[in-house]
Amino acid sequence: MTMRTTLTKVFLQEDINFLLTNRIPRRLLTRFMGWFSKIEQPLVRDASIALWQVFSDLDLSEARRKQFKSVHDCFTRELKDRARPIDCDPQVVVSPCDAIIGAHGRIAGTELLQIKGFTYSLSDFLGSPLLVERHRDGLYVTLRLTSSMYHRFHAPHDSSVERVTYISGDTWNVNPIALRRIEKLFCKNERAVIETRLCNRDLLTLVPVAAILVASIRLNCVDAPLNLAYRGPNLIPCSGHYEKGDEMGWFEHGSTIVVLAPGAWSFAESVDLGGVIRMGQPLFRMPAR
After folding, report:
1. Cα 104 from chain centroid (whole Å)
2. What mean pLDDT, rounded, does the chain reach?
3. Residue 33 belongs to what domain range?
4. Hey, which residues are catalytic here?
5. I need a surface site. Which of 46, 84, 236, 288 has the fewest CB within 10 A?
6. Considering its fold, how many domains does the chain have in total?
7. pTM: predicted TM-score of the whole model, two decimal places
8. Phi and psi at residue 146, in whole multiples of 5°?
9. What end-to-end distance do the CA atoms of the chain give, in Å?
């Protein structure tokens, strides 16, 4: 097979993937999947999970339970105790979730990289001038959860949630194929801006971004699910206190979390584009004080 033929095949596969996951009634399909995944009929449940395992690397060996009421129950599964060791170094800020590491680095003023060739701004992404200034020239990392991964996310460090801002939006797929084709995709999708304050007073912001089939974000410090049916308020005062590794919430499926950190921090040595990181592993290192 020639290089030209190989490239043509790759781009054709990307076209098909993009058409199947984006050029469809995204919100309608997402609502349908939310309903379908909660069906507790054993045949539907078992066939769906079996099909899911055929087309992905779904591994349930670490799950706390082996039997699930529905596909949704499997999506949002908890893990066995100590399945994710938490780095206890007080200078280390850990990954909040299992993920593939996407674009990351230093924010250029207020511009972040979505993927090579595409940028987006803190202003469009966060919608808060004050928060934009707090993260100007800071660090960012994009953590992409695939459909088969563990979907719960946890506190990266001892911290308190000061405020959550819910931003309604679309449900584009957030895989690399869509990121290469849709400008400012993260700024278009449904998302929750979670402002956390660490014990040393540093500000760390987590932004879970929803996607097709997964426009539902559950936060333990917010009573209502944040989904397509949510009607406000957009600004949600809350008071959640977490120790490093405590569960903060979960996605109904897989998606992305963008983490914004102070510019004085540095990335852990293991952070590498395209690498896999597990919840509890080092993500940032804070300077000694």
Report:
1. 14
2. 85
3. 3-75
4. 98, 154, 255
5. 288
6. 2
7. 0.85
8. -85, 170
9. 58
